[in-house]
Design a protein that fits this description.
With 410 residues, the protein is of the alpha/beta class. The protein has a single domain, classed as Purple Acid Phosphatase, chain A, domain 2. 24% of the residues lie in helices and 17% in strands. It is built from 9 helices and 16 strands. The strands form 4 sheets. A 6-stranded mixed beta sheet has the order 5-4-1-14-15-16. Strands 8-9-10-11-13-12 form a 6-stranded mixed beta sheet. It has a two-stranded antiparallel ribbon with strand order 2-3. A hairpin with a 3-residue loop joins strand 14 and strand 15. Helix 8 runs parallel beside helix 9. The longest helix has 17 residues.
Length: 410
């Protein structure tokens, strides 16, 4: 981690209140097999909607013909986690291909440019934490630059970056804003938060669509990472949340914050490589969705951490996911889907209350040589199509929930 954490002796700003510190939900049991069941289902996926086929026997030309009818097409990748180090393993034993990840990202960028997609979504963790110490050298800045250079062949539109925990192991938020063009908001006392929006305008004359809005949220708003230990109110909030919900956490013992040992179900989310969304950003999200609804726009929400507990492993969830879900459910006639990374094996669920699709995408990092993992996403009038490459699972999501006026009572 860099030393530039804006750690000065300014007075603490007034503390914002949030219900997340009170949430100790031990009653709900996580459906641990949800992701595996989803993958088994998609191994047999065959779609007959219009002329699109996503089975292994599909020809690339038929897929290309269908995608040309889409209102919007954009590219997507997540968890590149490049590092100039030999291949290795995660703590759970999954192989990681640190240098091949950059090769895969470069291949994806060229494919995005070839298809002239309207924008590209990067769901975070562009480099790995290992970049902070490579043979005694801090190579975080250089490694980010290397990945950005690999992505530079895509010039047809904008790359919408989120950031994750691994960026914060290497760079400060100020530095990330400069490198990734994330418009961080200063909420006072140098508390930087990186949330923003991007609108794609409808380019199909025969389609009644007022635009596709990407709402990028910062799931490391309240967290330990990259926040000043002495002056950050948000770091103090994170400390209190972990102290209340994770008995393994000892602020005086480094590494204890990342242990979910003994925690059950969704309570396993209370670890130090996760975070939460504070009140100011939650209000902004609500207002942004209301504005999109009034303008007749459709919305895709992007975050590094998953929002829905049935779309991921519990150790990857946003701490206050219930608060975020409550807001999304108010706009079920506007929000198409929520896309995230962080959980490398991916996952999916459709929210039973709102009908909104929650998809966690597979990591670039964990695909071996000759496999390049990323996605093309096509939005049609009646469906959203994920054309997965490499280990990214293809799927089709219908949009029938958008035809029903939201009447969810929160």
């Amino acid at each position: 981690m860099t030393s530039s954490n804006n750690c000065n002796k300014q007075p603490l700003s007034p503390r914002r209140t949030s219900s997340i510190a009170l949430d100790n939900n031990n009653d709900r049991k996580e459906k641990y097999n949800r992701v595996d069941l989803w993958k088994q289902r998609n191994q047999k996926l065959t779609t007959t909607s219009t002329s699109l086929e996503l089975s292994s026997s599909s020809s690339s030309s038929s897929i290309q013909d269908e995608s040309s009818k889409a209102i919007y097409t954009f590219g997507l990748l997540t968890d590149i986690q490049y590092a100039p180090v030999p291949d290795g393993f995660s703590y759970s034993g999954n192989p990681r291909y640190y240098q091949h990840a950059k090769v895969a990202a470069e291949h994806a960028a060229k494919h995005f440019e070839e298809e002239q997609v309207l924008c590209v979504v990067n769901l975070g963790d562009i480099v790995d934490g290992k970049c902070s110490d490579v043979d005694g050298c801090h190579l975080g800045h250089e490694s980010v630059d290397d990945v950005l250079n690999a992505l530079s062949s895509y010039t047809a539109g904008k790359i919408l970056h989120t950031y994750g925990n691994h960026e914060l192991y290497n760079l400060s938020r100020k530095e990330l804003g400069e490198k990734l063009s994330i418009p961080f908001v200063n909420e006072g006392n140098d508390e930087l938060v990186g949330y923003y929006q991007h609108l794609l305008h409808n380019q199909k004359e025969d389609c009644n669509n007022n635009g596709l809005r990407f709402i990028v949220i910062d799931s490391y708003d309240i967290c330990l990472l990259g926040r000043c230990e002495t002056t950050s109110t948000k770091r103090q909030q994170a400390h209190e949340i972990l102290s209340l919900n994770n008995p393994n956490y000892d602020s005086n013992k480094r590494g204890t914050e990342n242990s979910p040992e003994g925690l059950e179900g969704v309570s396993r989310r209370y670890v130090g490589f996760n975070g939460a969304i504070d009140t100011v950003q939650l209000e902004w999200l609500d207002q942004s969705l209301q504005s999109a609804k009034e303008k007749g726009e459709q919305v895709i929400i992007c975050s590094h951490q998953p929002i829905h507990p049935d779309s991921t492993w519990p150790t990857c969830l946003i701490w206050n996911y219930e608060e975020v879900l409550d807001i999304i459910r108010k706009y079920s006639d506007t929000v198409i889907a929520s896309f995230s990374g962080h959980a490398h094996k991916g996952g999916y669920t459709r929210d039973e209350i709102s009908g909104v699709h929650f998809r966690t995408f597979e990591a670039v990092l964990e695909s071996p040589e000759n496999i390049r993992t990323y996605a093309m996403v096509d939005l049609f009038k009646d469906k959203l199509v994920v054309r997965g490459e490499g280990d990214c699972v293809s799927d089709v999501y219908d949009l029938d929930h958008l035809n029903i006026e939201s009447n969810v009572q929160i």
